[in-house]
Write a structure and sequence with these properties.
The structure is a homodimer of 324-residue chains. With 324 residues, chain A is mainly alpha-helical. In chain A, 75% of the residues lie in helices and 1% in strands. Chain A has 16 helices and two strands. In chain A, strand 1 and strand 2 form a beta hairpin. In chain A, helix 7 runs antiparallel to helix 8. At the A-B interface, helix 4, helix 6 and helix 7 of A face helix 4, helix 6 and helix 7 of B.
Chain lengths: 324, 324
Amino acid sequence: MISYENILLNVEKWLSEIDCAHEPRNLYEPIDYSLSLGGKRLRPVLCLSACSLFRDDYESARWCALAIEVFHNFTLLHDDVMDKAGIRRGKPTVVAKYGLNTAILSGDAMLIEAYRLLSLTDSPSYPLVCDVFSQTAMQVCEGQQYDMDFENRTDVSTEEYLNMIRLKTAVLLAASLKMGALIGGASLCDVEALYEYGIQLGIAFQIQDDLLDTFGDEKTFGKTIGGDIMSNKKTFLLTTALERATTEQRLELASWLSLTDPVREEKIEGVRNLFIATRAREVAQAKIESLYSKAMNDLRAMDITAEGKRMFIDSAEKLFHRTK
Amino acid sequence: MISYENILLNVEKWLSEIDCAHEPRNLYEPIDYSLSLGGKRLRPVLCLSACSLFRDDYESARWCALAIEVFHNFTLLHDDVMDKAGIRRGKPTVVAKYGLNTAILSGDAMLIEAYRLLSLTDSPSYPLVCDVFSQTAMQVCEGQQYDMDFENRTDVSTEEYLNMIRLKTAVLLAASLKMGALIGGASLCDVEALYEYGIQLGIAFQIQDDLLDTFGDEKTFGKTIGGDIMSNKKTFLLTTALERATTEQRLELASWLSLTDPVREEKIEGVRNLFIATRAREVAQAKIESLYSKAMNDLRAMDITAEGKRMFIDSAEKLFHRTK
């Protein structure tokens, strides 16, 4: 039976076969390093899983799955440059290890490599897959730009925030499913249903990430808690809290946001309490539940095998039960 | 009759039709700005000209020509980030005008847009054109990395330098011809002949640029003379001079290179004199002549119309008589 685990084994094997043994080393070594940093490989697994729903041989989606993973790692690499991030997955980021210029150029080369890998796809759906890939890639850039724009704004609405995470996070998850399904030969109706399922899950996933950053357990979350609060990051919790706050609560929240040199524990505690008092935490939890249920209902309604559904439910659970 | 000028008019028109009127503005406005900075549009014109040699309707190569120009401007944008350049074509660079993060992200979006434009190509040669595009794009990155690597080395050979400019400059010119010819339906023999012609011209063009930076006339060159000398840039002149110098000349050159705070005019004058004394200047001029003649001979030997040959000779003259 096809499972997340045995697809993942193939993804890791295929990724390791991408040939980075070229000159100049300063261009290719950071690409190799970036791809070896690990991760859940969620997107390529989703792509191959989606293909396997409609076709025995999921290897047809091999190059597309690899293109998606290389593209995703390119976005992480350049995001780390823009965020001046020093650590990713417990190791130095490419920009921290190799410097700014090498990080920019290696990222560019990864984007080109992603398109090269994609072009190896041998499928009648290739032109359509290619369109989806470029459109999605552009949307991810749009999401990243909105995210950066939001840093300089204090009036971001929850609606704008949801649109941003749809672009920055959800569309690539959804497109991974869509491209896999297209290569598998799915009907356009099934393709769109899978895409919508991916969008719901992707948005729910990002809101859960916001929740964990503020209310999670450091041991299981694997990151320091409270980073979003300390950097005044516009998250679902913050935009919701600002929209639901009483005048008094809004003033208190604004005063935490305006402190130039707050005591870390005090600010985290203070803002957390406001997220609870305004019920922003509950709203976030309810939003995740509602998106998750909607995704699962859409999945159940799809005309695919029970085995296929089981595989997707497993993947979704894997994605959401990060704290267990 | 098809001429550089009337192809150029179409290129400018088509470029202006690329739709940048999207949100978020901070992503799309820098792309619009970058594409509006002008330039000779040499690469798309070469692509369309090459197509027109083999086919009445050069519009078949429209999307490929636009993809090449957008890709070229993407490389200029990211190169300016890496070089911390403030001015391009007399105007602020994207990084100077919009900041580092926007410049990185807008560049990424331009690379994606280049691939999207390319994918609009409707031609039986499309898969081959796509391969050439990705391979060339990767080579341009390799050339840029070598160029950066050379900054920290003192032992760069002329052979290494020639390989670097082949990758950084010549392959994109050559590939523009190749892709145009492929879309035009040329035989693989003609395609390769045009590619070689482009490589020779591209390398000659870059060596001429090195010569002009050191021995040109500021009024007609349009840039400050001596920039390469002041930054110890590894150019054809410098690698050749170092290889041809007597022990005494090598010591003198090394001492100019090692000065931390030289008087500008003195260093330029001193290094220039060494380029003349070692005959590096003459060698550079002879190299340009030899590459140019070889390119013209290759062109004459090609099985294309006299009118086609005339058009390419005109383009080459336009490229090389920049000082007139």
